[in-house]
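haha ok so turns out i had the wrong file open the whole time. this is the CORRECT one, sorry everyone. sequence first:
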Amino acid sequence: MGGIEGMPLQLMIVILVATMCTAILVGWMGSISAPQTIGTLEYESLYIADDGYLGDIEIVVRDGAGNLLEGAVVILDGLNVTSDGGDAVAVTDENGVATFKDVRIDPGSGRTGEIAIDVSKSGYSYYGNDTLKVRF
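then structure:
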């Protein structure tokens, strides 16, 4: 019979611990905000390459709410693309514009091709679904 007398105290301790854990979880979950996303890109969709030269390319980046996104890294990849003689990487300015100067590609043997556009920014979900279409 001695075991029955201690059971209500143990039950109260378990309930108290469970209540405190639930309060901590609810407080933690309340501080979680909706993830920020990279929303849309604005650019010309088709470029005509003259001997592999595309000229300057501007890409405007907006967040999921439609606001211009400063500080996003934009990378062009494919067709051996270069900008200013180096890798085609640019960071968006305060107007959300990533500018690639003197863009060149290697047309290879095809008549058309695509350049992938990858965009990222710390704290934002990854974006990498757009392509520039190029005709030679």
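The longest strand covers residues 53-63.
again sry for the mixup
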